[in-house]
Here is the input.
Amino acid sequence: MNKKNQPSFLGYLHSFRGFAIINIIFIHAFAYALFQYNNNSFDLKDPFYISNELLFHNSTVYFAVISGILFSVVLKSKGYKRFYSSKLKNVLLPYLFLTLLFSIFNPIFNPPIFKPFALQPDFISYLNAAFNNFIFGTAQFPYWYIPILIFLYLVTPLLDYLMNIKKWGTLLMLVIIALPLAISRVEVMDMEEYQLSLSTMIYFTGAYAAGIYFGVNPEKRFSWVKKNMVLFVLIALLSSVALVYFQIKEINKFGGWSLMSALYYIQKMCLSGIVIVLFKNIGDRQPHWLNPVASYAFVIYFLHAFFLDLLIESLLPLSTLHEIAPLNLFFAGFLFLSLSIALSMLIGRIFKKLFGKFSKMLVGV
Here is the structure.
C-alpha cells in the first residue's frame, strides 16, 4: 500500500475499532439492565434478550479481524521484534497491572445474589487468585479474550508463513478462516471457573487469519467485498433469521459442535466486511465522534465491566420501575452503556495526565 492511501485506510479501520468496542459494551450494558429488569435472571426467549444477543453477541470477532489487518498493513513491516515489544507494552503489561488490581476482589455470583466487590479473605488467596486470573483471564469477565489474543500473537509468524506460501498459501488461509464453522468456541457463560479452551483459540484464529488475508491486499479484497455487497448483506440477514429461529426453538448443540456459534461467526464476519467497506467508502470523512472512542478502545475494554458493577445499585430502581416498562429497560441500558464508556475514558485521561506515555503500560491508553 502506498503512503498516499495509508492514512485513509487507517482512518476507516480506526472507525471500525470504535464501532467494535461500542458493540462489545452494548451487549454487556444491556445484559446488566435485562438481568435487573427480569428480577436477577435471564429469559432466553425474551425478545429483548434475543435482540441484544442477535445484534451484539460475538462482537469480539471484530477485534480479531482488526488485529489481523493491522498486522499485515502496519506491523509486519516493522519486524517481529517491534511487533512483540509493542504487544508486551500495550497489551500484556496493562493486562497484568489491572489483573493484579482487580484480583483483590472475590466476586460472588449466585443468582439472585451478586456481590462483585467482595474481597479476598487473605493475602495467600489474593496471590492464588492473581495467578489464576492472569493465566485464564478471569479478573474481570471480559478479560477471557486477552489470553486468546496472546495466543493469536504467538501464532502470527505461522499464519504469516502460510500466507506467503506461493502455491498453497491462500488455500491454507481460507481453510483456517473456515475452521470456526466446524470448531465452536466455548461461550463465557459455559466456561468453568478457570478454563482456557483450544477450540476458542482456533475459533478466533479464523477471524484473525481473515484480517491478515484481507490486510495483505486491502484495496483489492475490500473492493471484492464492495462488488459482492448484496451477497454479504443477504448472508448476514439469513444468518440472523436463522439465529432467531434456533434461539426460540432451543436448537444449538450437537455433541461438542454449536450451530449458534457457527451462525454467529458467519453473521459477524459478513458484518465486518460490510461495515469496513462502508467506512472505507467515506474516505477522510470519518465520524468524528467515533475517534475518541476508538482511541480509548483498550481502556474501555479493560475497565467497563468494573463500572458496570459499580453502577448496579444506582440503576436498580430504574431497571425495576416496571410502571414505565419497557422504557425503563432502554433508559437503564443506555445509562449502563454511556456511563461505563465515559467513566472508562475519564480514567484513561487521568492516567495519561499523570503518567504520560507510560499510561499505555498501565491501562492501555
